[in-house]
Amino acid sequence: MSGPAPKPLLPTRSVSARIPFGSAVFTTPNLACMTPSDAPGNRWSDLDRPPLNATALRRALLRPGGLWTSVDVVPATGSTNSDLAAAVTGSPPAVEGAVLVAEEQTAGRGRLDRVWTASPRSGLFFSVALRPGPEVPVERWGWLPLLAGVAVATGLSRAAGVDTSLKWPNDLLVTVDGEERKAGGVLAERAGEDTVVVGIGVNVSLRAEELPVPAAGSLALAGAVSTDRDPLLRAVLRALEHWYGQWRGAGGDPLASRVQEAYAAGCATLGRTVRAELPGDRSLTGEAVALDGAGRLVLAMEDGTREAVGAGDIVHLRPAG
Length: 321
Fold this sequence. Notes:
Helices cover 19% and strands 26% of the residues. It is of the alpha+beta class and 321 residues long.
């Protein structure tokens, strides 16, 4: 299946949280194939990493009037974002609410085309198709990756029993041995004129010796009470349905939908001195003090001015407080 290359949806850089999400209160065409869990006589080599149960996921998530319209699990793929973007622009096109999950990604992508790798069945690797218009103006679609970050953090904090936070704009942080570690992220891309494909990757059961870089982490290493991926995936998708519904119902207004409030409450970047590494080999250093109405990170500079950062890598230089 082929289609035009998806375009990244801004803002496309990372955020963390002053109040861990685990401590905060928040109210809250078909790609089907036989999955490992559906196959007769299925066996797997790692008893700590059983395959997802696609049938049970569909039973739990697909309901009349709900956001999710299909849930498909594949044993392996290059990138769920690329596959779902191709399906969205194909004939017939995938509809809003399509969910594509992979047990393994061989060419997973993060921000700035960075590679995301993990052992098979060690995490959640999935993408969803969303069509916010016409209720939400295109200029507000940049909130989707931030909204998805809130959903991932709140859903996992409840289901896994770990404190989570966000590093602006879309990195999921957990604490491992007293240090902040990145355990997941969000990548949102335009597919066609009216669709956004939101990809989410989370390290669930990665062991210390499997971490790709020292700054990485996983829910298991953060002390998760459960690494069963079925309830974790259900929790994230239900949280995403909740926050997306609130945001869309408010016409994409981040204040009226409380998305901006929720994100700021769980953003570990706010209140810290940070360095923003910008395109063109430029950088800014200042205190991260707020998110503006467009989801940009506002820095207070030493000279008293304020700069809004919409794209760039954020480096935490000093803890909040």
